[in-house]
Amino acid sequence: xxxxxxxxxSLLLLLVFSVQGRAATKAxxxxxxxxxxxxxxxxxxxxxxxxxxxxxxxxxxxxxxDKAAAVFVRGGEKYRFYNLTGELGVAPGGPPSAFGEEGDPxxxxxxxSFAAHPRIKGGFVxxxxxxxxxxxxxxxxxxxxxxxxxxxxxxxxxxxxxxxDVRLAQVIRVDLEGDGAEEVLVSASRYDKGxxxxxxxGDYSMVFLRRVVNGKxxxxxxxxxxxxxVVKFGAPAEHRIxxxxxxxxxxVMEIVLFGRYYExxxxxxxxxxxxxxxxxxxxxxxx
Length: 287
Ligand SMILES: [Ca+2]
Ligand SMILES: [Ca+2]
Fold this sequence. Notes:
Elements: E1 11-16, E2 25-30, E3 32-37, E4 50-58, E5 63-65, H1 66-70, E6 78-83, E7 86-92, E8 97-98, E9 110-114, E10 124-127, E11 139-141, H2 146-158, E12 168-174, E13 183-190, E14 203-213, E15 216-227, E16 238-245, E17 254-261, E18 264-272, E19 277-286
Antiparallel strand pairs: 1-2, 3-4, 3-10, 4-5, 4-9, 6-7, 6-10, 8-9, 11-12, 12-13, 13-14, 14-15, 16-17, 17-18, 18-19
The structure holds calcium ion (2 copies).
Residues 246-248, 250, 252, 254 line the site of one calcium ion.
């Protein structure tokens, strides 16, 4: 895997000593943090600082979750901001700290702030490092295409919703790994009475991936909540695609999802291997 290098100020110093007794060589790797804010969450704080969750980062060898990542984020790192339409700008971030006050339900959640930041409406993902997080463009497609409506209906029937009310929210085409074959990501949600503690029969929200594997189209669910029957008091969730970015500079794009329920929100990220979809980060804040 290509190592992500350069430009964040927190350095991981690795001293590599030659076993033949030659001069010690110093190799420097840099930690690449990932910070994000969902479109569902609240906007700027009154002091004009943009605050966002620390999701984690790439150490050069492995993904580190939020708390392990925070050790390497000191403040002053340069971040590039993205959403599904592309790059939004650049800004330095502050050091991570608890998102909520002591005793607050979100005290365990880590966040950092951007004092000077690009004007951003809605959610974003901010990436440290200097590799290109957007090696290939994402294309937003029509949500009326029958092939994706049929794919959504098939998942809903499998999940016990016999007469699905298909409502696609996003259809996005991108070549995740750069092999020339394009993948399609779809989000679809139906909360007939809005998003609250109650779900009515036939409600759902999901994100799925369609790709060709060995000449066959394969559909894989990435996130989903399904309600074949009414639930009077629960935590039905809405899932949306937030960004599709390469978060570690290996040339393969990861998938960032925004999620919410009636009293909280979260952000998760997934690494897609040909056969597997692995969750690499999840953080958020809820009562
Ligand atoms: Ca591909
Ligand atoms: Ca990657």
